[in-house]
Amino acid sequence: MTPNPDPSDIRFRTRKWVRPEDLNANGTLFGGSLLKWIDEEATIYAIVQMGNRRVVTKIMSEINFVASAQEGDIIEMGLTATDFGTSSLTMRAEVRNMITRNSILTVDRIVFVNLGEDGRPAPHGYTEVTFERDRFPDA
Hints:
Elements: E1 11-17, H1 31-50, E2 55-60, E3 63-65, E4 74-84, E5 88-97, E6 103-114
Antiparallel strand pairs: 1-4, 2-6, 3-6, 4-5, 5-6
């Protein structure tokens, strides 16, 4: 069974405080900092969902910046799985400003691939989202 969640099902779990080192020349949140945070959050989500520490970002679709954040703002990032492939996980992301409640960015499609010990794509064996920690890989 492949999940087909409503976009409103995104769960906002990670928050970041916009600090001076995160700003661009315009004094607003630097897009590169935000993309780094999203990729890190998505990687952790993929590790937990596929039960493997060896995952890689394959695709990040169009990134739609719709607003920005200022120094001192707190942003929150949310992800939701939209499809499980044999060796992949597709998700969507949204980032919003907790102060203004405005959406800052959306990414409709982020695809991660599960890798085997040989570094090649490998089946992960899952078909639906878990909210438990039972898939978290052993050390």
